[in-house]
Amino acid sequence: MDSSIGNLFASVTAAYNRAITAEASKDESSPDEQGTEWWILGEYYDRSRARERREKEISIMWWSYRSNFLEMRPYGFTSDTGWGCMLRCSQMLLCQSLSLHRPSITPETYLSLFADVPGKAHPFGIHGMCRAGLGRDKFPGEWFGPREGCFVVKDLVGESKMGGGLDLKIIVAGEGCIYRDNVVEEMEKEEMGEEVRRRPLPPPPPISSDHDPLFNPPPSLTGTKEWSKSLLILIPLRLGVNGIDGRYRKNIVEAFSMKSFCGMMGGTPRHAIYFYGIDKGGGGLRGKDPHTTQFAPGRGREGKVKITKEYRDSCRGGDVTVRLESIDPSLALSFYVRGRDEFEAFVREAREGVAGEDLEGGKRLFSVEDRAPDYGGDLGLEGCVDGVEDGEDASEDEWEFI
């Protein structure tokens, strides 16, 4: 696809998305009209804290469509308008997690790290996102879903060498279940040398009648060894068929109230939004909508990104309110924990809420188990399937045609 065709496609899809946004906004109320009590990234805001809530929303970086960036060869794109919204939501989720992980990072640094310029100095720009997508068989111009967005973030952070390493590990719970033993193993193997890492891990101890792993976890899960890295947990989910099942509503609100909550990627088909807040009743979601096309930042003679006032201002805003029942059931939740203690606190909080059994008819969002199932075990079924007796010749019926 050459540059002219790519940009023509971008302009057509931009018009399409503007029409969708205008239609979706007709029946939407302002945040204060929908509710006066909100959960924003794990923190509660009532009417008396409306100003603080707004300041918090403004502080969340907004990454939107960009145009006039260096051409993505050989695909011809100089704009991601119409197809890059989930990648932009992935940027916002990653940027929010980094703001928790490295509070000392300045806004100017983020403006460089996420700039839409190819090169190692800008690993989280649209070029880096698309490069990671290629590793997942997703090409520029194709729409990414929440699941692909999770793996793009995982792959990008895994290969980042920023500042000698981010000291941030990302785990994608692709089955809708977090296995504690897998998490502990993944985090602790980072502390091992290369030789030790290659050794096979011992099998888990057998579970006897007097050993219930829910109440008496195996010794491997009760260690106190602290992790040198922090952890970002990404959980892609599907919470319904044509829309979100109403029985999830209570626990979705619960997820937004968790201390470790780092945002949700979702929206409608081909219209992704990064959600950071929800009203107390669960009717309205607050988020950053990337469907505004702005110019990519310029570069100086040495190739460095120009951090202008216009560029700074273009990364603030984009806030929208949408109804929970209007979004697609495919979404992804994220949780950031600074170390092992915070991870165990997250496990306890999840089991008491979003990952627990709701006796009021609700449905849990995901599961947290101590150990992953062993699919390689011997079921002891040898000889139980074959119905041929010893000494009996089955060759007569083996190739019978009907």
Automatic annotation (TrEMBL):
Peptidase C54 catalytic domain residues: 55-348
EC class of the enzyme, as a word: hydrolase
GO molecular function, one term: protein-phosphatidylethanolamide deconjugating activity
GO cellular component: cytoplasm
EC number: 3.4.22.-
Chemical reaction(s) catalysed: [protein]-C-terminal L-amino acid-glycyl-phosphatidylethanolamide + H2O = [protein]-C-terminal L-amino acid-glycine + a 1,2-diacyl-sn-glycero-3-phosphoethanolamine
Principal cellular location given in the protein's record: cytoplasm
GO biological process: aggrephagy; autophagosome assembly; mitophagy; piecemeal microautophagy of the nucleus; protein processing; protein transport
Signal peptide: none
Subcellular location: Cytoplasm
Keywords: Autophagy, Cytoplasm, Hydrolase, Protease, Protein transport, Thiol protease, Transport
InterPro entries: Papain-like_cys_pep_sf, Peptidase_C54, Peptidase_C54_cat
Region of interest: Disordered: 192-220
A Pfam family annotated for this UniProt entry: Peptidase_C54
Stated family: Belongs to the peptidase C54 family.
Protein role: Cysteine protease that plays a key role in autophagy by mediating both proteolytic activation and delipidation of ATG8 family proteins.
Official protein name in the record: Cysteine protease
Source organism of the structure: Triparma columacea
